[in-house]
Design a protein that fits this description.
heterodimer; A: about 280 residues; mainly alpha; about 80% helix; about 0% strand; B: about 270 residues; 10 helices; globular; transport (chain A)
């Protein structure tokens, strides 16, 4: 047994090295990407121009000296914040509604001592849904959803929620799988129903870790809001894209500044909140 | 007084849950809930997209194209991760402050490198990609650097945290035997965190594949690029083919990294 374990790791390491080398080779050989071309005079000129633009050098009215654009950026920041909270809320609700059949110890009946014929069926279906929803990146969800909804905060929130639904669901299910099963079994043997088991047995024990995961995902969602904005889902990202298309580089500096502030604020708040419930 | 404080302690979780719920409800008011939210033909489109899900385009050229772009996506992810690991190593070691003597200098070096790592990972990879494309043009390197920077930031931070959490006895043993700081790093710290950092890097690699797929949004090739092209042509059946390829790719990496992690961390 031990010999096989070592060999799997060694094979994996070699496979990874091979994959890395093959990737670099294919990038250099097949796609003919060259580093020296990257630093050609022309590119340097454009890069210089771009960065000068970002800092507003040679610009008559850079956006960060303009009260109007500050106000605008502040509004967008608030919108982005709302979008992230909404997305977190949607995905949490969806994950909480589906998580019970997705836990392995509920599917095989070891947690509740009740085995249902559809246990494994619903387990497979829900887990499959989780895998599907988290394997598709937020941006792809957003691209598809923008065909159905009008550009705005809602499609962005839904796209973010769809991706995070799978992640939160999986994390929640793992929390339930790690639970101490004795209190729940007690409840179950004294005749508690499914909902009562969830409310009085599972939720109190799992809540702290659920909250931790929700806060952690909120941080990540905050960072990703800007990305779904790129395809027209509102917030800072949408303005970022527009400014990029209009070559309003100083606007971008301002937007990036607000974006960074938002991300750091989210990190700070979620860290403090997690510390609060510890 | 004492009892009151105790009950507050007990109810902290409920209070936080309530605050979060309240924030969610407030955020719902930022949208005007009416029919204008959906395109006039939005539901029909939704139906078309849903039916296309069951009839993905499986013709030969599309499959070939999908495989080709899967490789592009995978190769960018692998190349980006290899650079990210290099970044993580050269930033993570000073950010953990283990190779510097204790004192004021250590604190400054730590916060300097930790701050830089924080900045790297604060900006999403797609934003980096956009900045790179705007400055160096459409080149695979834009995608690779854009992946390498935020992933390097995350990996570096985790690497630094792991190095700081290493149990100190073996290190002290090495120091007592006369090892220099560099030698304690090489023979003490690194072997102890190797399994954990490898397993974390494998997990990030899976995320990198997903991120590399969306790099295409700024015009860099790969699966996401094909998804976008097909969406623009309203060929929803092709969209799902590419999405399925992406899912298969992600699941394969996921399974592999799960197996590897299970064996590594024991």
């Amino acid at each position: 047994m031990k010999k096989r374990r070592i060999s799997f790791i060694t094979v994996s390491v070699y496979a990874l090295l091979l994959l890395g080398t093959a990737s670099w080779i294919s990038i250099f050989m097949i796609e003919k990407a060259s580093l020296s071309l990257l630093f050609s005079e022309q590119n340097l000129y454009y890069a210089g121009k771009f960065f000068k633009g970002l800092f507003g050098i040679g610009e008559e009215s850079p956006a960060f000296l303009n009260v109007e654009s500050w106000k605008n950026a502040l509004d967008l920041t608030l919108e982005t914040l709302f979008m992230s909270v909404m997305a977190t809320g949607f995905s949490t609700i969806a994950a909480l509604l589906t998580v019970v059949p997705a836990a392995r110890n509920i599917a095989d009946g070891s947690l509740t001592l009740v085995k249902k014929w559809h246990g494994w069926l619903s387990f497979g279906a829900v887990r499959g849904g989780y895998i599907f929803s988290r394997a598709v990146p937020e941006l792809v969800w957003a691209m598809i959803i923008i065909f159905i909804f009008k550009p705005g905060l809602l499609p962005g929130a839904i796209a973010l929620a769809l991706h995070n639904f799978g992640i939160l669901g999986k994390l929640f299910a793992e929390v339930i799988e790690d639970l101490d099963s004795r209190p729940v079994r007690n409840l179950s043997s004294s005749g508690a129903g499914r909902l009562q088991l969830l409310l009085y047995g599972v939720l109190p024990a799992a809540l702290p870790r659920f909250l931790t995961y929700i806060l952690y995902r909120w941080e990540v969602i905050m960072r990703t809001t800007i990305v779904v904005g790129f395809v027209g889902a509102g917030g800072l990202g949408q303005q970022f894209k527009l400014s990029m298309s209009f070559f309003h580089y100083t606007d971008i500096t301002l937007l990036l500044l607000f974006y960074l502030l938002l991300v750091f604020a989210a990190d700070f708040i979620s860290e403090k909140a997690r510390w609060f419930i510890k | 007084m004492d009892k009151k404080w105790l009950s507050f302690e007990l109810h902290k979780r409920k209070i936080l849950s309530l605050i979060l719920l309240l924030a969610f409800i407030i955020s719902l008011f930022s949208i005007e809930w009416n029919k204008d939210l959906i395109h006039s033909k939005g539901l029909d489109t939704a139906k078309q997209i849903a039916t296309a899900f069951f009839t993905p385009d499986l013709s030969g050229d599309i499959l070939l194209l999908a495989m080709e772009s899967s490789w592009t996506t995978l190769s960018y992810a692998a190349a980006g991760m290899s650079l990210a690991i290099v970044i993580a190593f050269f930033y993570g070691v000073p950010a953990s402050g283990i190779i510097v003597a204790d004192g004021k200098g250590k604190r400054y070096i730590r916060s300097f490198f930790r701050g830089q790592l924080g900045f790297m990972r604060a900006i999403h990879e797609l934003v980096w990609a956009w900045l790179f494309v705007a400055s160096i043009g459409l080149s695979p390197f834009a995608a690779i650097f854009a992946l390498a920077i935020p992933y390097g930031g995350i990996l570096g931070r985790i690497f630094a945290d792991m190095l700081e959490d290493v149990s100190k006895e073996p290190i002290k043993g090495l120091e007592a035997a006369g090892a220099t700081k560099l030698q304690t790093l090489w023979y003490g710290y690194l072997p102890m965190v190797r399994a954990n950092i490898t397993s974390y890097a494998m997990y990030r690699f899976e995320c990198a594949v997903r991120s590399s797929a969306i790099m295409s949004f700024v015009g860099i090739g790969g699966l996401g690029y094909q998804i976008q092209l097909s969406l623009d042509d309203l060929h929803y059946d092709e969209v799902w083919t590419f999405v399925f390829f992406l899912i298969i790719l992600v699941i394969m990496i996921d399974l592999w990294s799960n197996q590897l992690r299970k064996r590594l961390v024991q």
